[in-house]
Amino acid sequence: MRGSLRFCKQLSFRKGETIFEQGDPAFGFYCLCAGAVKLWRWTRSGRCQLLTVIEGQGVLLGTEALIEHHRGYAACALEDSQLYFVAREEFALLPGLELLNAQAQLLVQVEKRLAETLGRGAQERLARLLLNNSSNSLLTLGELAALAGLSVEHICKAVQSPPNSRLMSSLSSPLVAVSRI
Asked: What residues does 37 pair with on adjacent strands?
């Protein structure tokens, strides 16, 4: 991508460093080259809502810059990360179908997370989250709770429950999953 784009810049972010804030002007989008990034937003009630964790080379974030002029969520590096920033001026040079496909993938990921949070019981949400996400070891206990739509206290109680509980019986390898917290 970099060879054909004049306004593409490689950027490095340290663990915990903000990539962009909710409400910032959207001057372009980012392509993740290495690392992991969490996306979150402030709700109307003033709560921090974790949307998703992005990892994997080539994943795009901030593509709302194609249609919006301000960021609807914030992004923060979960670990040291490298990204390319593609300025709005370069959008016309990009293959449109690939860009739309990448954006659709991100939206589907966020929608799945919301549907899972709303459509399942607390124990099942936590069990699925612990089994299905390799990036859990990068999250704090509070972030894990936010991603599951639970309180930190609820997660602590669920993890400390006896082996015959619903949570532990839902996990195929509870010791591995619990050690990620």
From this structure: 54, 77
